[in-house]
Design brief:
The protein is built from ten helices and no strands. About 65% of the residues lie in helices and about 0% in strands. It is elongated and about 75 Å long. The model has no long low-confidence stretch (mean pLDDT about 75). Helix 1 packs across helix 4 and helix 9 packs antiparallel against helix 10. The longest helix has 23 residues.
Length: about 180
Amino acid sequence: MTSLRIGLIPARDPELFAQLEAMVESATWSSKVGRDALHSLVKTVSARGGTVADITVGDAVEYLAALKAANAKTPGNTLFCAWLRELGTLPAEAPSSLHYLANTSGQVSVEQRVDRFGVRCRPVRDLLVDYLKERQLGLDYTSLNNLSRHLASNLWGDLEQQGGKPFHFRRAEWTPIPTG
């Protein structure tokens, strides 16, 4: 990141970066969260082109979506939006932090629960969704949430990681085995 920052700052927007550094408290600027926020800012500028003043809320949201897709959990990855808003490069009505855009409120669907773990094999993903929908009626929200994590992440996610490539799975029609 250092070489990217060293090359990008003088070439693209040295005045605004200097203004940003002066605006942010030195303890925050030098902290891991501050460095991560600066890293996010530099990566956004380098990906979008232009200068810091050219970054839009949409660019920041797109960057956050890319981080989420890559399962990157970096502290400070949404702080740069607050910095841009404070600098005046984003409009006053822009969200003060992308953190709130990344969070969903309320209960999420079974599909969303499974999809958050990035199951690459679509038939397995569909099988997990179908199974969890059947179990949904008999479970409370937290139990269903935990079961989706155990199946999609702990079980299937580990299998995908161990195999090194996506599994191929053919789902056959099945009928429940009679009990009793």
